[in-house]
Amino acid sequence: GFSALVGFLIVFRTSQAYHRFEDGVTHIHRMQAEWFDACAAVIAFCKMSQASSKATMEFQHTLIRLFSVLHAVALAEIEDCNSDELHEVKAFKYELVDVEGLDAVTLSEVQRSRSKVELVYQWIQQLIITNIDNNVLRVPAPILSRSFQELASGMVQFHEAVKISTIPFPFPYAQSCECLLMVHWFL
């Protein structure tokens, strides 16, 4: 009887842990897919640009750099690292797409920010809006809004992954499992 109860609790806890892992991985992959789709669509919209090719290329390069930084800071926030030292965060060691193309002020703002993901996300939105006015993005608003929707969906997936990363397994349940395992070990 008691061994069956302990076995059931272990199987249930393992199942819950696997489910959380699977959900976390799913949210990260969806985040990546949504942001890739948003970036790819905005780059494709540049085909209709009426701005100079230099302005269009500058916009495309900046957009891709910002998406690269967005992904890196998102993975860093999801990473379960208790250190405030940036050099200890594994996600900040990933290679970025031409990060030297961003100015030093931008990079220092990201480094100092407490909300890195939200900051870069906002910069991407502002970059897109700014380049509507200067004719780099000459696409109807309903079509362009799809890119904003994909960008926002990626943020939802990001926040779901952060939730899994930051909310631990319920403490009372974990402690009761450990106590029952200790009792079982002594018996």
Strand content: under 5%
End-to-end distance, in Å?
Answer: 13 Å
Structural class: mainly alpha
Regarding quaternary structure, what we see is single chain
Total of helices = 6
Mind telling me the C-alpha Rg? 22 Å
Largest sheet: none
How confident is the prediction overall: mean pLDDT?
Answer: 86
Poorly predicted spans: none
**Large-scale geometry:** elongated
Name the helicity range. Answer: over 70%
Number of beta strands: 0
List SSEs in N-to-C order: HHHHHH
Overview of this structure, please?
The protein has 187 residues and is mainly alpha-helical. Helix content is 74%, strand content 0%. The protein has 6 helices and no strands. The chain has helices at residues 2-45, 53-78, 104-112, 116-133, 141-166, 171-186. α1 packs antiparallel against α2 (53-78), α1 packs antiparallel against α6 and α2 packs antiparallel against α4 (116-133). The protein is elongated.
Short structural description:
With 187 residues, the protein is mostly helical.
SSE blueprint and pairings:
Blueprint: H1 2-45, H2 53-78, H3 104-112, H4 116-133, H5 141-166, H6 171-186
Helix pairs in contact: 1-2, 1-5, 1-6, 2-4
For this entry, give a set of tags.
single chain, mainly alpha, 6 helices, 0% strand, elongated
